[in-house]
Amino acid sequence: MDPRFPTGKFAFDPNPTAETRRESVAIIGSFPAELKASLATARIDQPYREGGWTGRQVVHHVADSHMNAFVRFRLALTEDNPTIKPYKEAEWAKLADSTTEDPAVSVQILDGLHRRWHRMLQSLADADFARTANHPEHGPVTLDWFLQLYAWHGRHHIGHLKLTGS
Predict the structure, then answer these.
(1) For 6, what's the count of Cα atoms within 13 Å in the CB-facing half-sphere?
(2) Which CATH number belongs to the domain containing residue 79 in this structure?
């Protein structure tokens, strides 16, 4: 197993069914509880692999990433093919709040964020998931792509936290 990808690499399904879409929405909704459970055995100042982030940095990264994702969804739902801004996640993970702050702070952020995000996702019609945003690194992507990516992303980093406890 490659510790960089404990749940495997992201693979987009370009033809999701309504059921697979519902599963991804449910994953977004249940993520905070799964994160809290994984933190119970994580060693937050232990890197998940040599040269990797600590558990603390992983939790703060997920909050940073999912805040950006929530905004990306909202932009794509309210604008025609907006260009979204990437960010230097590795540099963000080096900032003092990511390296020293209690992960519980980001868990609180994720609780509220995922509650709103999940509610928003549940309200969408199937056609809404075809809306697009222009990602400077990936080109035009649909909300289906973002949905699958962030459902995978949360579980991907829970896998990293589990590696810190082993």
Answers:
(1) 17
(2) 1.20.120.450
